From TrEMBL:
UniProt keyword Oxidoreductase, yes or no: yes
Chitin-binding type-4 domain: residues covered: 30-195
Protein name: Lytic polysaccharide monooxygenase
Family annotation (Pfam families): LPMO_10 (PF03067)
Source organism: Kribbella lupini
Signal peptide: 1-29
Length: 197
């Protein structure tokens, strides 16, 4: 009887160990922008309240790649089309905190990646002068040619990523949409940052 208990205990421990070894996360790449601070990161920091699930996983705004011809639907860009993160699409009457930027100057964009992934590129888009700040972000509100593209050609970035580039000429409140396109899946990560020039 004692030998049988030891055998069953051994099988149970072995099964648990095997589960730990073979468990694979369903998503391999995750990340969010820290400068300018994205809406997702503001929620995770507690700077903005009533954010829903994104406050626990700012790195998870993952949606279909191919922006701007593909990707999440208009009005759902900041949430990457994920219903559980829909609070990110709400303009909140302009109450989102902004990062102060200088028009036309050089700026360093920073990402924190919680899981690196083979990468096609990082692209940065900005709203047009005169965009509707009270409506959820749409393609018609954005300049659809990115003002900064950083190619990676399938390489894996580190866990802290920085890109420097020149900001467009703007004044007033705007939004920057940062898109991290993954090379070996059908997805990309979308981060919206509220800025003021």
């Amino acid at each position: 009887m004692r030998a049988r208990r030891k055998t069953l205990a051994g099988i149970a421990i072995g099964a648990l160990a095997l589960t730990g070894i073979t468990a694979v996360p369903t998503a391999y790449g995750h990340g969010y922008t820290t400068s300018p601070t994205s809406r997702a990161k503001h929620c995770a920091n507690g700077t903005v309240q009533n954010c829903g699930n994104i406050q626990w996983e700012p790195q998870s705004t993952e949606g279909p790649k191919g922006f701007p011809s593909g990707g999440p639907a208009d009005g759902k860009l900041c949430s990457a089309g994920i219903g559980a993160f829909d609070q990110l699409n709400d303009q909140r009457g302009g109450a989102w905190p902004t990062t102060q930027l200088n028009s036309g100057s050089f700026y360093t964009f920073n990402w924190t990646l919680t899981a690196a992934h083979a990468t096609t590129d990082f692209k940065y888009y900005i709203t047009k002068q005169g965009w509707n700040q009270n409506a959820p972000l749409t393609r018609s509100a954005l300049e659809l040619t990115p003002f900064l593209t950083v190619p990676f050609n399938g390489a894996r970035p580190g866990f802290q990523v920085s890109h420097s580039g020149q900001l467009p000429t703007r004044s007033g409140r705007h939004m920057i949409l940062a898109v991290w396109t993954i090379a070996d899946t059908g997805n990309a990560f979308y981060q919206c940052s509220d800025v003021r020039f």
